[in-house]
């Protein structure tokens, strides 16, 4: 069966009917029986439907998992394959999905009726259902968004001499800015024509083989011995200062302990420690859930998608932060998130808050941990936490570990261990503010980078390098960043053990020189400056739009409000 040659139009028809078909190493994989069992979640597969996901699949999975995929092969495809737009990326995906489910339910109910009373399915009524649902929400398909390729040398230009006529509106303004950024992206990066991108992919695969040949996927466990000494020292410092009643100093040490130990949770979440799913999941859950009160399952659910659709405004949950922040004008159009199935509406709160986002960046990052608590519990009570197939048990492990965290931290430490309410409140605030640097590290590598989609022909390695920035630091300071300073390298090879990333960086630089892909790497201070500049540039766009709206509302030139 796997040797059958499948025509592209046949595969496209199956995808239109809802079949999750992904291309891997010249074969079409029908993952309909696997999608609800995938430990990485449904969305990781849905974003690859209709695409040649060979590189994404190979870097995320070990040999055993790759061999298992052969049983899902439908047949060979005619190469070279032209990528399709995954249905999940359509703004009408969830509407169409609901309509299909409703139609299937009606068909099933009709089939269950006695034979003599059975009626044929009224296709016109099904079409009416779809039309009705489609009319509920209309959404302009996104033109792509992009920053200038070099965020330091080519700051994004904010048009100030825009003439708005009566037909002008916020969407048109956002689309105009998006088109400009796409043009810059196409101009300043290697061509996205298939031939150029295939050459880049071939070099990337050769690089991947070189990394495997050098043994960089082998974890150096001795490094975690040194890591444990540092974690232990911070925890002992917290406990001792708490014992002598230096409460605020103790809170700082606890926050630093959280910041440092979460680097290892990140490693475990990517199976970069033992390579064994069960072992790394338990390590990650113990650190994230038990020690820090954060769901490793939630993190993996969003982070897997983030790696596949990096910096895509409608799809990457890591940049969906309005009304607090936006790094792209796309959100002015009120986009639908394919991750949350929620429409991020641009409203008066955005008009008010975004112009000040450069100044609110660090204060909000100081308290971002409270938002992570909420997202963690929302994930664990959602159906998504149960859609993990054989990994169903992870949900219950996380609930137990997080309950233990809140018993030890919330009840035993905060409620019983601290004497007064002012000290309790102060301890919570100070300990959580001490994790500020971690949240800055997390956002640093992407918030200053492009958000444009340069088209379905752009290769995986080019998009990852175009949307990700590394942080330059001496080797002795690696502990401070915990591997997050090598985000570009990490995005190319997510399972690579953290302590081998510095060596891999050398190989990635050589790869970029050969392929003429840009490798963005800045010092920590300069990187922060680039992020703040990007936030200010987008803020100016919003200010320009708001001022024009006020002018037109005052003069009666248009109905823009």
Automatic annotation (TrEMBL):
EC number(s) on file: 1.14.19.18
Molecular functions per Gene Ontology: metal ion binding; oxidoreductase activity, acting on paired donors, with oxidation of a pair of donors resulting in the reduction of molecular oxygen to two molecules of water
Membrane topology (UniProt): Multi-pass membrane protein
The organism of origin for this protein: Amniculicola lignicola CBS 123094
Main location (coarse class): membrane
Protein name: Delta 8-(E)-sphingolipid desaturase
Boundaries of every Cytochrome b5 heme-binding domain copy: 22-78
PROSITE patterns reported for this sequence: CYTOCHROME_B5_2 (PS50255)
Keyword Membrane: yes
GO cellular component, one term: membrane
Assigned protein family: Belongs to the fatty acid desaturase type 1 family.
This protein's UniProt keywords: Heme, Iron, Lipid metabolism, Membrane, Metal-binding, Oxidoreductase, Sphingolipid metabolism, Transmembrane, Transmembrane helix
